[in-house]
Amino acid sequence: MTVAARPEELLALAVDVAGEAGRLALENQDGIDVLDTKSSPTDVVTEMDRRCEETIRERLLRERPGDSVLGEESGSDSGTNSVRWIVDPIDGTVNYLYGREDWAVSVAAEVAGDVVAGAVVVPRHGDVYTAARGAGAACNGQPLRAARPVRLDRALVATGFGYSAARRAQQAEVLRAVLPQVRDIRRGGAAAVDLCSVARGRADAYYERGLKYWDWAAAALVAREAGVRVEGLHHAPPDSELLLAAPHDLFEELHDLLASLGADTTG
């Protein structure tokens, strides 16, 4: 049975396998088409989503037999070790489908329920974001620190939208109220890239409803290790109800605004 490795060792493997999958996806982006849909006709899957996840899963279990893997496309399996890998083979599939640049491969290592290492590879930008619990975050080997918090009315805020028409309509109503209160809004289309952008100071804050664990497991660790507060509303952990990321002072302002708007209500 494989014993649990140190976070730095798990991170090295995460970087390696995410990089391998990222190269595979990048080489095959041109001409890709929709293979299937999931929750709605707009929630698409490509052949490369599945091929990349298979590549990551096979490599992880070859290197660490006994670990388990939770992947977006193939679900969860059970292992005998305390390490579970959280995998999003292509975060931002619609961007990938349209030949756009903002998509990423995310691989996180969770030990006994806590994410201790994470890698987010953004192939079209040539960026590799990394973090290990308690050891800080980096982009391409350079340490990351989030930008100093600004007032809400000076904040560049990233967000995203769900796939169902009802949820999008409700999110649009929230956004209509948020927009006059902030500097501007950005919608990149890849949660992991948005979270890493906050860690890098390329956005001041990010919020979104409807995310899955694999969307944020690796990137949330990157953000936290860069000094970003990542939570849900009312001090809850981030989950599908809402994820909010911002430096501490800005977090409170944006949190209170989103809470007042019912940003975590079902749509």
TrEMBL record:
One of its GO terms (biological process) is signal transduction. CDD domains: IMPase (cd01639). Pathway: Amino-acid biosynthesis; L-histidine biosynthesis; L-histidine from 5-phospho-alpha-D-ribose 1-diphosphate: step 8/9. Keywords: Hydrolase, Magnesium, Metal-binding. The keyword Transmembrane helix does not apply. It is an enzyme of class 3 (hydrolase). Its EC number is 3.1.3.25. Mg(2+) 2 binds at residue 90. It holds the Pfam family Inositol_P. The keyword Transport does not apply. Its cofactor is Mg(2+). It catalyses: a myo-inositol phosphate + H2O = myo-inositol + phosphate; L-histidinol phosphate + H2O = L-histidinol + phosphate. Mg(2+) 1 binds at residues 72, 88, 91, 215. GO terms for molecular function: histidinol-phosphatase activity; inositol monophosphate 1-phosphatase activity; metal ion binding. Catalyzes the dephosphorylation of histidinol-phosphate to histidinol, the direct precursor of histidine. Belongs to the inositol monophosphatase superfamily. This is Inositol-1-monophosphatase. It comes from Haloactinospora alba.
